[in-house]
Amino acid sequence: MNPRFRLPTPYTFRERWRFRGPRAANHPMTSFQTRMLGTRSQKWFYFDGILSSVTDVPALQFITVYAIALGASDAEVGLISIAIGLAGVLALTPGARIAEITSSRKSVQMWGGGGIGRVALLVMALAPLIMPDLQAAFWLILGAVFVRSFVQNVSHPSWVSLLADIIPLDLRRFYVTQRMLAVTVAAALTAPLVGFGIRAVGGVEGYQVLFGLSFLVGIGATYAYSRIEEPERPPRHERPRGSTRGILRDRLFIRYLLALLALNTTTMITGPFLLVYFVRDLGGSVSDVGLLATLEQVAAVGSQFLLGMWVTKFSSERLFKWVLFFPAIIPAIWLVAGDPWHVSFGFAAGGLIWAVYNVAIFNLLMEYAPNENIPRYASVQQIVILLATFIGPVIGTVIVATWDIRAAMLVSMVGRFLSALVMFIPVRWIPAIRTPPVPPLAPGSVTVPVAPPSVAPAPAEVEREA
After folding, report:
1. pLDDT computed for residue 20 by the predictor
2. Cβ(384)–Cβ(393) under 8 Å?
3. Looking at 154-272, which runs of residues are DSSP E strands?
């Protein structure tokens, strides 16, 4: 008999990490190790998250600086965000349909985000060699950014659907929380190394080298994902079809989407302008921005570590309801800041709050969505978030142009607080009516009409717990 792995901590502390629900029949619930790496698929999915986080750092945090090094103007740099959002909106609807009809969701991810998306990183690295004219190289990079965002969002519904199949429901909240913690730690360690590497090599070549290394790490992430054992799917005609009508009937999910839209829109009112305000009005430097970003990542790591002890004690919906009240603190801190060091409290608060928020919305999506409709639920959620990234900056630009950025901070603070109240609007949960599939009739058999079952009226209010 193999000895069981135990964390070197007191028993009472270990009990805080133990799931309080029923034991599953297909896996042990004895230790942190078996819950995280209990199956081959869980292990490789965990490693894929870490490697993907490392390979995404240059494309997420340094792409705009890379564009400026190529001589792009401010307006051209803004096209990068527009390309990412537009590609996502265009990709999510076909992505949901592909996730429903494909026989292998892993192949969708392997060819999409794990294949073409990683090749796009190599194109970004080689762009100045392919196009010696740096202005032309920027447009090639912009095209690669669009393609990468498109294939990633096409793959997203398949990725979420496969995750729901390989991670049991009673482990999902704990597993996702710990995986996100590992992802955050990897990004926090990688970002300063990438910045140092770019400075050490120097010039445009520094970006090329680091984006090339990012591509190589991405190949490792794709290999890790390829080792996941995908459960065999029934034939297409035997699988339950996703339903947009089912989403519209899910009033709890609609209320959740409204809260997401309100929070993300009011957040993006100030999002594009805070660093400009920090450098121009408060007198901060570019090096200060790097230190504050590191502080934000450290706060996120601490937040997710503590969340791991609490995530199994509360439903994701309850956690999401209460965390929505805290983002309003961030613009309030910026509003009263008089010196550059004052905003360090805003960055620390942002790291703590948004880390909990990201875990809560992912787990809540997995709990709201029926397994057969996960791709459509995931697509709708992403579309709402991407719409907010378009609406929020437009509102913020109007406010800043009419008054100033401090007025935008005040509007954002009030709007974030009001968005939290959306989740407390009372709604009735109308459960979906599930009709069991009718087996095919044998030759020569006679059909007998059967009266439809009666449906009991829904109660006035049903609280859906995890």
Report:
1. 36
2. no
3. none
C-beta of residue 295 within 8 angstroms of C-beta of residue 351: yes
Question: Which token pair is 161?
Answer: 């659907």
- Sequence-separated (6 or more) residues with CB below 8 Å from residue 286: 279
Distance (Å, whole) CA 280 – CA 160:
41
Class of domain 38-168+186-230: mainly alpha
Using an 8 Å Cβ cutoff, are 190 and 134 in contact? no
CATH numeric code, 242-431: 1.20.1250.20
The DSSP symbol for 9 reads S
Per-residue pLDDT of 9-58, as tens digits, reads 333 333 333 333 334 334 444 455 566 677 888 889 999 999 999 998 88
Q: 158 near 96, Cβ under 8 Å?
A: no
Q: How many residues can be counted in the chain?
A: 466
DSSP classification of residue 6: -
Q: What are phi and psi of 303, to 5 degrees?
A: -65, -45
Sign of torsion over alpha carbons 160, 381, 173, 218: positive
Q: pTM of the predicted model, to two decimals?
A: 0.70
DSSP category for residue 458: P
Find, among 314, 295, 291, the residue nearest to 303 by Cα.
295
Q: Taking Cα atoms as reference points, which of 57, 61, 53, 66 lies closest to residue 142?
A: 66
Question: In this structure, is the dihedral angle defined by the CA atoms of residues 8, 10, 16 and 20, taken in order, positive or negative?
Answer: positive
- Give the residue carrying structure tokens 């406010």: 399
Which tokens in the block code for residue 152?
Answer: 């990633």
DSSP 114-137: IIIHHHHHHHHHHHHHH-SSHHHH
Contacts of 453 (CB under 8 A, 6+ apart): none
Give the integer Cα–Cα distance in Å for 212 and 407: 42
Give me the numbers of helices (H) and strands (E) for the chain, helices first please.
Answer: 19, 0
Q: Which residues of the chain have pLDDT under 70?
A: 1-36, 74-75, 78, 237-242, 272, 285-287, 289-290, 308-314, 428-466
CB 175 within 8 A of CB 36: yes
Supply the pLDDT for residue 308.
Answer: 62
Domain with CATH 1.20.1250.20 in the chain: 242-431
Amino acid type, 84:
I
Q: How many other C-beta atoms are found inside a 10 Å radius of the C-beta of residue 463? A: 9
3-state secondary structure 73-95: CHHHHHHHHHHHHHHHHHHHHHH
